[in-house]
Design goal:
Elements lengths: L6 H24 L7 H32 L4 H23 L6 H16 L9
Amino acid sequence: MQENKWYPVKVWVTTIVISALFSTIFSYAKVDEPFTHFIPFFIFSVLYGLLYSFPVFGLCFFLFRILIIRHLSETSIKLLLCLVGIAGIIITMLILMPWFGYRGPIIYSIATFISVLLFRIFKDRTV
């Protein structure tokens, strides 16, 4: 079986982009701001997310390599990566960004779940 070596990177980037988009939409739905600020806020959210998610991404990347070596099923790998990713998001946000409250971890956790499901790990079989 040939694994998709870029799977962790795809999941990481997709999670950040989806989360930034959700965060920006929810933020602008609550306030009466001009739409011209939407794009800069979205870009800031992506860069902010990339910066703060790097430790969790590193952990998931190494876990992915270990799970591939152990020849686990695609579903098992996705489940474990999703759980570790969500736990890492919650811990990171509670420690480094407590002002986000519950909304931040929920948005990023949903985005992580979506991202994990979007891509295949093995190129020659389905989930």
